[in-house]
Write a structure and sequence with these properties.
The protein is α+β, with helices and mostly antiparallel strands. Helices cover about 25% and strands about 30% of the residues. It has a five-stranded mixed β-sheet with strand order 1-2-3-5-4, with helices on one face. The longest helix has 14 residues.
């Protein structure tokens, strides 16, 4: 089995959500200036020393997936996901660039816009904003020294379910 076949087989067993997360994480890891990339687990609500050691962090949060059933055990889903950029106060001084946060937001949008995979269509940026009470209904408790910027993206994923029935030929009873 060739390398290409191994990669395809590995992707075939990967769920669309996992493929999307890994593709976004890989793209964000390629941006100079972002030190930590992970899935959103409310790390900054209850910060520990590990998270607070990073000056900049990008967390990926899946907001919702709205599925529609298609033919032949396929699901098509509209995915909304946030990339939340956390910046610790004082980090800009080390770069001598007061607009570094804007540069990072632009780099995130550029890396993710039109990113596509095997099980998802090109990603599109829908909205940007700073974390405050007007952004959404989720509670993110931030320390005074951390600022959070949101970027909301959208894409369509395709998920093939396992077949429920085995196709068998009919036997002749005569």
């Amino acid at each position: 089995m060739g390398i290409t076949k191994k990669i395809i087989n590995k992707i075939e067993i990967m769920t669309p959500r996992k493929e999307l997360f890994l593709a976004v994480k890989d793209a964000l890891n390629g941006i100079e200036g972002i030190e930590y990339v992970d899935i959103f687990r409310k790390q900054f609500n209850y910060p520990n020393e590990t998270v607070l050691n990073y000056w900049t962090s990008a967390l990926i949060r899946f907001r919702s997936i709205e599925y529609e059933t298609m033919t032949e055990q396929f699901l098509e889903g509209e995915v909304k996901l946030d990339v939340i950029l956390y910046c610790k106060e004082g980090w800009i001084e080390q770069y001598n660039n007061e607009l570094m946060e804007i540069d990072l937001l632009d780099a995130i949008a550029e890396k993710l816009q039109f990113l596509k995979g095997i099980q998802f269509k090109p990603i599109q940026l829908l909205r940007e904003g700073i974390e405050d009470e007007s952004w959404d209904n989720t509670e993110i408790k931030l320390t005074e020294s951390v600022v959070a910027y949101h970027q909301l993206f959208s894409t369509t994923i395709y998920h093939q379910l396992k077949q429920r029935y085995q196709y068998q030929s009919l036997k002749n009873i005569n």
